[in-house]
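Sequence of Alpha-amylase (Vibrio inusitatus NBRC 102082).
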Amino acid sequence: MNTWVKDAIVYQIYPRSFKDSNNDGIGDINGVRSKLDYLEQLGINTLWLSPVYDSPCDDNGYDIRDYQTILAEFGTMQDFDLLLEECHQRGMKLVMDLVINHCSDEHEWFEQSKLSKTGPYADYFYWADKPNDLKSVFGGSAWDYCESRQQFYLHTFSKKQPDLNWECSDLVSEIERMVDWWLDKGVDGFRVDAISFLDKSGIEDAPNGTFATEACVNRPKGHTHLRKLMSKVHTRDVLSVGEINARGTSELLDYVLPSRNEFQMAIVFTPPEIEVFHENLNQYYKDQIKVRIEVQRQGAWNANFLSNHDKPRQVSLYGDDGEFWLQAAKALAVLNLTQHGTPYLYQGEEIGMTNCYFDEISDYDDIDTIAKFQEQLENGLSSEQALALVSKASRDNSRTPMQWDSSTFAGFSKVTPWLKVNENKSTINVKSQEQDAESILQFYKQLIEFRLGSETLKTGDTSLHETADPIIAYQRQGDSCTYLVIVNLSSEVVLAPSLPESQTARLMFGEALSEYLPPYYFAIYKY
Ligand code: NOJ
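Predicted 3D structure, token representation.
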């Protein structure tokens, strides 16, 4: 793997919510360009752009209508080229989102496929005369009827996201050409979306009521297709990260072991409800650390993250967005930036942005939230109860406009944005944190700089101490030094764990250990 990938600090931009440059209420590429100074000062060296391709935006761009055109709301290809050039001038890399499990039903391939059972696009999608009882991720059947073809097509996600048929060699060649086109343009790699579902051979025998995602997850031919594509991609100087569904470490390793040449690292997707309603998130998080330790032991590389556009805000989920907000956001930054692998930051985590807690379902935009709300109403819940339930895990929690300042629309736009601004923009925003030496933003800057300068934090061995919840403590051991990281991931005062002592330990971040550790205590010691 290239050195720059090991040194990367990746910052995920959700373009719709990052910065609106033309005041239409929707973030855009020129908005991203206008914030490159900010990102550079933060210490970011790699951007991952969520989809900016032409799309009807049924799933906010994860339904692509044309892979080689930029969505007009986001700007033009010329704007994109400038963004790429300006990133490269600063020594920053730009990684694209690649959505190739499905496309939009408005893509030309699907328009053509709908027309004929024998034409050149006939097999680009999955068609069936009689559908079975598979369920789609965003509610309802995974099959939809197409009048013109008098057949049903498969959609793992929404009905506007038909699944592409990777058994069709013409389709695969088109995808390979498109990927090459972006690489020739100079993009620095891909985050590959929903890639665990390429092999659909499981759908026929799936028991009634199974989710399409379960029926076709991690099947052998999916890996074969992926390896063929990625072995070509890896001949270039790129970063590759797969968004995968893994039901255990071995399924994860199948994607990231270097010998398999599939991905350099993986972002493991977990339905947000699993974490939001988990009985013991501390234990859950420790288990994630154990998985990362195993990945590292096997000679593979990790992608370390706490947030993205599919999850609630990390400070609200794992920390505290009330009394201990400041301390909790810093403690989580420590966890995100001191583990093995490449850290991924999601826009706004560096200022401790929180969940949004809207009062009305009409304030929500996310297709997933709305589908789940409907489902709860059908289960007999009142709208208040349904909203209370689905809002906790809503993906819109992380999609509210970036809070640049305390003005009406948080400096994101001068007009009403596509999704409401979080009311706490007057206290949580970039501008105020830039002026405050103790802010979360300043803490991120210091920690990123520290991480970039430390080979041990990037590649050192990791060992987890057996501490009782809610303490998380691990060691990172390198050739020249060892770091000990201790976090109290709770709002309780807890007894300090007994850890190996060293007379020469130097406190690099946080407070010195004492008998009792305050809420969201953290420390990084160097030996
Ligand atoms: C995963 C993406 O992260 C999510 O936002 C999207 O809805 C699904 N894949 C479908 O593309």
